[in-house]
User: Which sequence fits this backbone?
């Protein structure tokens, strides 16, 4: 088990970024780490940028990590992945959902969304490895459109050496009981996305 | 006992429960709001938790409950301290019968505030002790410590968090709660203590000064203060979350951790200064510790290194320390990339279905000066409206409008203020307008909740946090009783009615109140089928875009003559509020027909 792992979870308000980063923190605690996390919510919770720092370690001092030092970037939205990329260390790994959520400035035509070429170029420079998956699309296919965050987390779980049962226990404890099975299915489907070599 | 992952605010609520708090009051404000919400949700059977009309009312109520013998907690965001400061000053003089812990959640970085004030100064101004937790465990533990100090020294105690402490989560080991078992006896008739009339307050002031000396003596052995000796080359003094950042960035340095940052343990700090080669104080915002350390005659570096604006996150601390020569430049990690320039930002906008939209749509077109206030409607200052020209603090709008009237501003002017803000601090300035025969329209935007901070109750709602029943104060009879003769209520979702009401109120020679009534979409949950744009009929005039609704998007289709993009509606965002249909000049927007909703 590594001594410390730093994660940056990036998304847009309403995507379940905070729940996902809570689960990630709880998983670290269940795996025996000290954990701290910090969420930065934009002024508008709905539709604003959300950036969560999650830190696992023997003893974690600060709830916030530093630019150029973090191990993983998990992004629910490509534009938000770009905003978080500077936090990755040269050995860092990025995982992002390919579904875009255009800001109002883009949908109303006053700004333009970065191209996939730019997104790939920036993330390619920022990270040692970049994985792109269709988590939101998979969630819609499963009929649980709101569980895109859990699908992506499932995909991410394939990158860490934490037993599946630890993840599943935390997911079950953190979601409403009546949606537990649906969320666990979503989680497993996400893990499957990585196995299929969807990288 | 197992450790739980709690936010600082959840931990404060837990701490209050463990410390035997029975009465908790406050006014909602980011980043403090979750404290009372957690208390009500998890411990509501044993703790009375109330959203008071404003912070001052909250502290006065806490004073009364504490005089009566109940342990109390009061919560506020940093600017709310200014509202309750008057009451804080007397409470320090009177002391109490049961403990009072006052939590201020400051906002370095101004994530959701109008200023970056450092409320540690209130400890010195009001002469009371202040504790600054660094994480959730300390946030919980310090509430118990504060309660203990409050009763031991007969003083309210301030606990100061910042957004990073309140909203970060870390593992907390809980303790057995010390719940009170006694009901309070008769109310004390101790006039010399509890009546701050000058002749008796004069007797209390020396008590306050002696108490401060006693607290300074206590600070030397306070368990929240400690010298952590490591390398002698560098000794850093820090409090609050900055302590955690210092440990992260300078793992080798000796650190004096001040859990209690006023009054200071002078002897212990002098000893620490003597044990290190160089003394540095790392603090966010003002040189609160630095100036006191200098007053002790110590040579210390602080604000020369670390600027007083914004947060002092680990990365910043590292950067400034390297600039100041405390660290080598190569110790600062360099990111592989920087955030690409010109990324589209996600600026906040009024939600789809927001009742405030109609008012700002009209004010924007009418181009008159607007004195604004604190709430979601402050977004009226942003594009596409740009229809708010002043905004300072809670309740300021009506007084500023009055000032425009006194100044003889040649234009007609309005103030915009929400229902919760009006109850908070709008009543006095409105009475003042009436009394002084002012002119202007106060638009009272009644969305039936305190929306921006997370949909809390206020005196105008028929429900309350404590769930023990609530009476609603009606706005119309209230403003009439304040002497406003011209009062008009309109449906905020009816564009025409809002305009008509505005015109009528503006024509009135005197103060008038226009109540734009429509519940916040998150309270009413009145989500209807998404509207459609008839692409053939749309003339790409852009009128609907002036509503600033995130559900209205540019279509791919363009108008053949102008080449301008037509409008479309994002069915996942639209809640069917109908405002865009009402403003469309050619009737191109309509509600879905039966069976047409494909969401």
Assistant:
């Amino acid at each position: 088990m590594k001594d410390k792992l730093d994660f940056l979870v990036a998304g847009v308000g309403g995507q379940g970024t905070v729940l996902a980063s809570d689960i990630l923190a709880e998983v670290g605690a269940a795996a025996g780490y000290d954990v701290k996390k910090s969420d930065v919510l934009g002024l508008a919770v709905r539709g604003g940028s959300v950036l969560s720092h999650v830190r696992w370690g023997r003893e974690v001092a600060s709830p916030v990590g530093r630019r150029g030092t973090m191990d993983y970037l998990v992004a629910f939205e490509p534009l938000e992945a770009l905003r978080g990329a500077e936090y990755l260390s040269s050995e860092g790994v990025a995982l992002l959902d390919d579904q875009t959520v255009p800001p109002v400035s883009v949908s109303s035509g006053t700004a333009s969304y970065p191209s996939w070429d730019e997104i790939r170029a920036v993330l390619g420079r920022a990270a040692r490895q970049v994985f792109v998956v269709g988590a939101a699309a998979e969630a819609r296919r499963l009929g649980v459109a709101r569980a895109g965050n859990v699908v992506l987390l499932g995909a991410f779980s394939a990158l860490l050496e934490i037993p599946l049962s630890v993840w599943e226990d935390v997911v079950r404890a953190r979601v409403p009981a009546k949606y537990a099975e649906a969320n666990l299915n979503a989680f497993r489907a996400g893990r499957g996305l990585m196995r299929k070599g969807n990288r | 006992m197992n450790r739980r992952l709690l936010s600082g605010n959840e931990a404060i609520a837990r701490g209050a429960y463990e410390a035997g708090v029975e009465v908790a009051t406050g006014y909602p404000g980011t980043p403090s709001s979750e404290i009372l919400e957690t208390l009500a949700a998890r411990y509501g059977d044993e703790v009375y938790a109330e959203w008071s009309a404003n912070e001052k009312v909250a502290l006065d109520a806490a004073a009364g409950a504490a005089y009566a013998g109940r342990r109390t907690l009061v919560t506020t965001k940093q600017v709310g301290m200014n509202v309750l400061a008057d009451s804080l000053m007397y409470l320090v003089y009177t002391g109490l019968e049961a403990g009072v812990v006052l939590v201020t959640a400051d906002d370095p970085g101004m994530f959701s505030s109008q200023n970056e004030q450092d409320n540690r100064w209130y400890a010195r101004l009001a002469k009371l002790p202040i504790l600054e937790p660094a994480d959730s465990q300390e946030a919980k533990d310090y509430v118990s410590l504060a309660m203990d100090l409050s009763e031991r020294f007969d003083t309210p105690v301030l606990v100061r968090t910042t957004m990073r402490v309140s909203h970060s989560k870390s593992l907390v080991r809980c303790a057995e709660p010390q719940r009170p078992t006694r009901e309070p006896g008769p109310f004390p008739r101790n006039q010399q203590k509890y009546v701050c009339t000058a002749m008796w307050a004069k007797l209390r002031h020396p008590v306050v000064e002696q108490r401060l000396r006693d607290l300074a003596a206590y600070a030397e052995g306070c368990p929240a203060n400690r010298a952590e000796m490591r390398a002698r080359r560098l000794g850093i003094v820090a409090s609050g979350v900055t302590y955690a950042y210092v440990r992260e960035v300078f793992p080798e340095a000796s650190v004096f951790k001040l859990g209690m940052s006023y009054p200071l343990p002078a002897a212990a700090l002098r000893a620490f200064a003597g044990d290190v080669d160089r003394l540095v104080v790392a603090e966010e915002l003002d040189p609160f510790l630095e100036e006191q350390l200098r007053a002790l005659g110590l040579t210390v570096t602080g604000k020369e290194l670390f600027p007083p604006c914004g947060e002092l996150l680990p990365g910043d601390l590292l950067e400034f320390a390297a600039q100041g020569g405390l660290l080598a430049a190569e110790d600062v990690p360099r990111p592989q990339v920087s955030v690409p320039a010109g990324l589209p930002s996600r600026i906040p906008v009024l939600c789809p279905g927001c009742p405030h939209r109609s008012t700002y749509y009209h004010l924007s077109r009418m181009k008159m000066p607007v004195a604004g206030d604190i709430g979601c409607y402050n977004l009226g200052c942003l594009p596409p409206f740009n229809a708010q020209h002043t905004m300072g603090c809670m309740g300021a709008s009506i007084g500023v409008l009055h000032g425009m009237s006194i100044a003889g501003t040649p234009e007609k002017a309005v103030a915009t203020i929400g229902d919760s803000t009006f109850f908070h601090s709008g009543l006095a300035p409105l009475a003042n307008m009436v009394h002084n025969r002012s002119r202007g329209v106060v638009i009272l935007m009644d969305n039936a909740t305190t929306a921006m901070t997370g949909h809390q109750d206020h005196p105008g709602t028929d429900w309350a946090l404590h769930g023990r029943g609530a009476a609603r104060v009606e706005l119309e009879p209230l403003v009439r009783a304040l002497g406003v003769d011209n009062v008009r209520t309109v449906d905020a979702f009816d564009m025409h009615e809002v305009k008509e009401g505005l015109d009528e109120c503006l024509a009135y020679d005197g103060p008038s109140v226009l109540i734009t009534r429509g519940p916040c979409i998150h309270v009413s949950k009145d989500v209807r089928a998404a509207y459609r744009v008839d692409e053939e009929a749309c003339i790409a005039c852009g009128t609907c875009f002036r509503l600033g609704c995130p559900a209205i998007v540019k279509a791919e289709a363009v108008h053949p003559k102008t080449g301008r993009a037509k409008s479309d509606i994002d069915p996942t965002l639209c809640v069917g509020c109908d405002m865009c249909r009402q403003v469309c000049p050619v009737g191109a927007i309509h509600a879905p027909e039966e069976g047409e909703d494909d969401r």
The first strand of chain A starts at residue 4 and ends at 12. The mean pLDDT of chain A is 93. Residues 180-195 of chain A form the longest helix (16 residues). The beta strands of chain A are 4-12, 34-41, 49-57, 70-75, 88-97, 129-133.
